[in-house]
Amino acid sequence: MHIKKVRVVQDALDANATIARANRADFDRAGVAVVNLMSAPGSGKTALLEKALHHLDAIEVGVLEGDVQGSFDADRLARLHVSVTQLNTDPGFGGECHLDANMVRSALPSIPLSDLDLLIIENVGNLVCPAEFHVGEDARVMVSSVTEGEDKPLKYPLMFRTCDLVLVNKIDLLPHLDFDLDRFLANLDAVHPGVPHLQVSARTGQGIDAWRDWLVQIVSRRAVPA
Amino acid sequence: MHIKKVRVVQDALDANATIARANRADFDRAGVAVVNLMSAPGSGKTALLEKALHHLDAIEVGVLEGDVQGSFDADRLARLHVSVTQLNTDPGFGGECHLDANMVRSALPSIPLSDLDLLIIENVGNLVCPAEFHVGEDARVMVSSVTEGEDKPLKYPLMFRTCDLVLVNKIDLLPHLDFDLDRFLANLDAVHPGVPHLQVSARTGQGIDAWRDWLVQIVSRRAVPA
Questions:
Q1: Nearest residue of A to residue B67 by CA position?
Q2: pTM for the structure as a whole
Q3: B17 at A interface, C-beta within 8 A
Q4: Mean pLDDT of B27-50
Q5: Contact between residue A82 and residue A62 where contact means Cβ atoms under 8 Å apart
Q6: List of residues 6+ apart from A76 with CB closer than 8 A
Q7: What is the ipTM of this complex?
Q8: In this complex, is the C-beta atom of A132 within 8 Å of any C-beta atom belonging to chain B?
Q9: 3-state SS, residue A144
Q10: Lowest-confidence region among A89-98, A107-116, A140-149, A208-217
């Protein structure tokens, strides 16, 4: 008789991948596109969401907010009348520094998936571990602020390599910084050749329309039957 | 016969504390003061070190650079003729997001401890996990840039609560930001009442003398026999 061999799952990332696929199946059933939004602390994820969601009336959006503790960002976004769910990581090992697939899965019963076109998962502010844990998303967007320096793609390559769009934020501050945008973009291209980027400012509104259009396009692409 | 009871060490943080104490004993024997320097990515740790160490001729300083990969910051600091040791965390679980006591211990044979008055450990840029792992330091300094927003003490309370000095960096950018310094300082005081802070700018040099004086004072305090 032919014996089927099953490889034993090897580590935490294998388990994470298994749960991410289960999340993915739920998102597919509900027909919702999912974006994993990541950055360092204070890069402007929430501010860029506030701006993009403000005039995004054509589609139904939900946000899953990941934070070590508190609900500061969720409170800001709730003013926009989008569905916001708060996920705190502090019951973990001293406060987990990232979301993983299982944490996202634990939040799914609180999210009205079938009412949504787009779910945005705002990850914990961190450039290391969030990149290692897929949560079942369609796309990864990372925000990199020009105040953080040109070297960041080289210092945190996994994060920049695994994202589908880079929002170069706080572009309005360029005249006041010793930041070499061309060098940043060259470093980004060295780490992730051809990855698209948008130059944006949550403060002045520069690039926000393009960022909003990108989100709508993610939903449209998803709506086309495979 | 009286039985001595020994509590079994319970978790990774217990193991870390044990190794941190061993590091501490080595630092004591060598008579070196140790500062653990922490911040989010791109807050300006390395730039503030460059400025402070440039005219710090009275004491012998070494730097242990913690990064996921590469030696960009170590290369910058090596130009100052201080002893620089690079510690990369990428052999860990997909790249560790923090230094722990054992990683620091593994670097000690490469550091000329007995020649130093002060060892500065530049941690991995992250506001979560570095706060959880003591490495045997005398003091913790964290850098928080005004570009990161006033809410950071409330969102990452452990980091702000366990530090002995906060460097509020990029203070030269205040006129160009919607950053409320009083609100930031109130949030800081709510999380860590009475913690000292210095308003600094690596770019303009504001506050750098006070930051350098603070480092010298840490060494002086240590040099006084207990």
A1: A155
A2: 0.91
A3: no
A4: 97
A5: yes
A6: A46, A50
A7: 0.88
A8: yes
A9: strand
A10: A89-98
